[in-house]
Structure formats: C-alpha cells, structure tokens
Write a structure and sequence with these properties.
Number of helices: 15
Strand order of the largest sheet: 2-8-7-6-5-3-4
Helix content: 40-55%
Largest sheet: 7 strands, mixed
Radius of gyration: 22 Å
C-alpha cells in the first residue's frame, strides 16, 4: 500500500539534501565546537556558518540567534527567561487562549511562581484582536506572547500589529513561529518582534533542534547553566549535525517560498472544498487567512479518533489535533476557544500538506473520507436520532 502522509504539522520527513548535509558531522567533522584543536575548529566553523544562514533568513544579526533543542524549549526560554529577568518591573504576561501548550503550560507554571497571566480570547476564526491586546496592558506588563499561526487550525495572527502595540508600550513581544516558519515569510525586522521561536522538524529538518531569535538588548535570563556555549546563555555541547541540518532545511524551505506556498494552498483549497461538501461538516479557522498547508474540519456525529483509525487503515495519515495532545481524550482547547461545543470538537480532523503532497494524494483523500464518514455515521445513534428529527 502506498501511504499518504498528511500530518506535516506534527512533523515532516527530513529531506535528502538536508540529510546529506548533516552526515559528515556525525563521522568526519565530529569535534566538539568548544575544543581549540583543528577538529573542534572545523565544528565551530560549521556552527557559526549555520548561525549566519539562519540569521540571513530571519533578517537579523548572527549573534541574535541561539540554538536550542526545539520549539518547546525556545518558547520556555523566551517566556521564563524574560519573566524572571524583568520581575522588578512587573509580573504580568499576556498571551492567547489558543497558544501551543509549550506557551500555555509555561504561563500556568509562572502563575504558581507569583506571576499573573491574561489569556486573551479569540474570535470564531481563532484570531486575536489587537485591541484586546492593548486593553490588557498594564504598567506591570513585561511580556506579550502570541503565536504567528495556530498549529491546529492554521489561522494566521496579526503579529505585526501586536508587535507595534507592544513596542509603543515598551513591552517585550515574543512569537511562536514554529508552524509558520517555512510556510509564510518570517522577517523579524518587518514583524518587529523581540523574540521568535522555530523548530527544524516542521520544515524538513531533523527533530530535536530549534532556535530562538533574541533581539540584541532584550533582558533575558540564561536558560541553562554550565559551560560557555551559545555565548554563555545555554550551556551544553552543541548538536552540530542537527544545527547544520536546521540551517540547510530553513534555507531550502524559504527558497521560492511564494511559488511553493501558492501550489500547496491550491491543493489545500481543493481539500477544503471537497471535504466541507460532506453534509454536516465545517471548516475550522479562517477560510483565507490561514497557513497554506492547513485544512482542519469538524465532522458531526463521528469521533475524530475513529476517523483517524479508518483513514490509517486506508493508508492515510492525518491528525485529530496537535501531535502533542492527540493522545488525550479531552477536546482541543483551540476548538473550544473558537466556540465549538464538545461533541463537535471531538469530531475534528487536521490534514496538513507539504511541498511533496501531490494532486493524486488529495484526490485519494477526497474519494476515501466520505465513505468512512458514511460508515461511521451509520453506526451512530446520535446521527440516527438527528436524521429522524429532520423528517
């Protein structure tokens, strides 16, 4: 069976070009970048070249890029590090109700440490209103953290406007760009953010490596203590193969980005149009202001987990929510935040495409899912009661 992979928001395949770029740093250039001998200097050269490459894509200085173990670490560092470094100014943080758990759980932990957090609501499409951001700012606010685009429903946030508001009030602004990076342009100067998180495995790089952009001058505590790596802010021997892979993947992902995004968005739109033609189905997130690779739908009268299992048996990989929470029986906090009742939120599916997704694969999904829905609804007493009531 030829499997169809449409769970790229969870993780992507490492591209062959990225893997080829990484391999020498496992076997030939294997030195510790902190060593002063030739083998170590070769590793250091690769590290700093990768830093320059990432900085070039983000349009910032190389010394403003810090390598991490991934998006969750970058989010934790940005939020905790800023909170504790600026506690004398105040202890108030603003975020949104639909952030990734790497942000939400970090903020909840900070509340236990005496900080206060405002969780902004979103509209029915999952968008934060910048006016709500400004209204929430007090003289104690030290940080605003709003994601660039939502990982579940794909809605793109007005981060440029939020960044302008934050700067006008002299409040730091962090954006989690883990889902957006490699899908839409991310220029930190044009955005105006103070910090930005990204993760390599979302754009065909390796797992376990990410980066945090920290604008020069931002007051932030060190994330890890020990050695002098990452200019003394994150101690631990650098993952040179992973960092090289991240830089190469980011370079490739952002080449011809407009053209690639347009092609993927066209396939996404076909998927949305075809799947929402199934009766009693709705699109989650904004129809147009969404990531080019994201299609999230709710199908009434069936469970998302049952849909996933049937799709998997048919050779199609999708998701019922974010990969980090898909094992939970609770409905998605994102879908609840946009106003869906529990029973509809439970019937959600996320299809996330990549530049490797083909027209044939989209056509196969559109042929396969309606039959699965019909079969599952035929076993649903809720659907039977609903149809009886319609008579």
């Amino acid at each position: 069976m030829n499997r169809i992979y449409m769970d790229n928001a969870a993780t992507t395949a490492v591209s062959r070009q990225v893997l080829d770029k990484m391999l020498p740093y496992f076997t030939d250039v294997y030195g510790n970048a902190s060593s002063i001998h030739g083998t170590g200097r070769d590793a250091r050269k690769a590290l700093e070249e990768a830093r320059r490459q990432v900085a070039s894509v983000l349009n910032c200085k190389p010394q403003e890029i810090y390598f991490t173990s991934g998006g969750s670490e970058s989010d934790n560092w940005a939020i905790k590090g800023t909170a504790f470094a600026n506690r004398r100014k105040g202890g108030h943080i603003i975020t949104s109700a639909i952030e990734h758990h790497a942000v939400l759980h970090t903020c909840q932990w900070l509340e236990k440490q005496g900080f206060t957090v405002t969780y902004l609501p979103v509209d029915e499409y999952g968008q934060v209103d910048p006016r709500d951001v400004e209204a929430a700012i007090t003289d104690k606010t030290i940080l605003i953290s709003v994601m660039a685009a939502n990982n579940e429903i794909g809605t793109i946030q007005p981060i440029r406007e939020i960044a302008r508001i934050a700067r006008a009030h002299q409040v730091y602004f962090h954006t989690d760009a883990v889902q957006a990076m490699g899908a839409i342009p991310m220029d930190v100067q044009e955005i105006g953010c103070d910090m930005l998180s990204l993760s390599a495995h979302k754009f065909h790089g390796p797992k376990g490596v990410g980066a945090l952009y920290i604008r020069q001058g931002v007051r932030i505590d060190n994330f890890m203590h020990g050695g002098a790596q990452e200019r003394g802010k994150r101690a631990t021997t650098e993952n040179i193969p992973g960092i090289v892979g991240l830089a190469e993947a980011l370079k490739l992902a952002t080449q011809d980005l407009e053209e690639k995004s347009a092609r993927i968005a066209a396939l996404r739109d076909q998927l949305i149009d075809g799947l929402t033609a199934i009766p009693y189905t709705r699109l989650n997130g904004h129809r147009t202001n969404r990531l080019p690779n994201n299609c999230n739908i709710s199908i009434r009268f069936v469970e998302g987990e049952a849909l996933l299992l049937r799709l998997d048996l048919a050779g199609i990989a999708a998701s019922s929510g974010s990969a980090c929470t898909s094992g939970s029986l609770d409905p998605s906090h994102v879908l609840l935040a946009i106003g869906l009742p529990h029973e509809i939120a439970h019937g959600s599916l996320r299809f996330s495409l990549s530049d490797a997704t083909t027209q044939e694969e989209v056509d196969t999904v559109l042929r396969t899912l309606p039959g699965i829905v019909e079969t599952l609804r035929s076993m649903s007493p809720l659907y039977a009661d609903f149809m009886e009531a319609q008579k």
